[in-house]
Amino acid sequence: MPKLPRLTAEEAERMLLKSGFQHVRSKGSHKIYQRDKERFVLPFHKGKTLHPKITKELFDVIDDVIG
């Protein structure tokens, strides 16, 4: 399995919006995105890279949308 890229919150947000998710609301430093019944919570700490587990979840959610 190839290594996942290190993403910032801004890059992850762009990927979510491109795949059809919409920003629903924010709570503190977390932004909630939704597409149909699927929801994704993105911790938004400007300038920091996301934890690899969050990046993996992001790619899983986007793969579900595409495939």
Question: In summary, what is this structure?
Answer:
This protein has 67 residues and is an alpha+beta fold.
Can you walk me through this structure?
- The chain is of the alpha+beta class.
- It is 37% helix and 27% strand.
- The protein has two helices and three strands; from the N terminus they run αβββα.
- A three-stranded antiparallel β-sheet has the order 1-2-3, covered by helices on one side.
- A hairpin with a 2-residue loop joins β2 and β3.
- The two termini are 18 Å apart.
- The model has no long low-confidence stretch (mean pLDDT 91).
Key structural traits:
alpha+beta, 67 residues, 3 strands
Task: Lay out the secondary structure.
Layout: H1 9-18, E1 22-27, E2 30-35, E3 38-43, H2 52-66
Antiparallel strand pairs: 1-2, 2-3
Look at the structure and give the mean pLDDT: 91
- Straight-line distance between termini: 18 Å
Strand order of the largest sheet: 1-2-3
Largest sheet: 3 strands, antiparallel
Give the strand tally. 3
Low-confidence stretches: none
Sequence of secondary-structure elements? HEEEH
Structural class: alpha+beta
